[in-house]
Amino acid sequence: INGVDRHREKWTAYNTGTGVLPEYKGRAIVDNLYLHSFPLLKEHGIEKCLLEVICENKRAIKVYERIGFGISRKLHTYKGVLPRETSGNILQKCPFREVMSGGLYKSQHNSWDHLAEAVLLREDDINTWCLGEKNSPTAYLVMDFDGNILQLESDEGNYAHLLKAANFPKREVKFKNIPSERLALLKTLNNFKFSNSLDQYEMEM
Fold this sequence. Notes:
single chain, ten-stranded mixed β-sheet, 6 helices, 10 strands, globular
């Protein structure tokens, strides 16, 4: 199953899921699926293929590397409980489109499922929370109704300040697919005793 959109200025087919029945494993089914799909994707202007794979899934990684994919970066998932200490500030709801127009959003900080285009498609089941003036927020986070934090940004990189201002009744949250280069955010989550529950590789071809 592939989703199609622009990713870093290129038309991209993102592998949203690949399944092979157990009795057919080991028969290069995935290789053949891609060999069949390449001409069709190219015919429709697709320039790049993208996927995510759990780091421990060595077998799948070998298959994708054999097909021609390369690891582009590592993504981390963390889960834990928001701090109960407060920063004196309180998050307030704001439209995600205001965040976009204010310049806080950084596409490179997000995996495929959490890009702005994906968030805009989910406006009915997410909330955007902001710090600062309503029309010019200084920080924000986007969370769905299950407690998954999809995006989080701060103009000063002060993520602790932002998390302390999160006055949500639901304290258990999960941060999905944080790129390894977001060192300040990862350090904050470790300081708050969040656990690193899953790692994935983002792979491109």
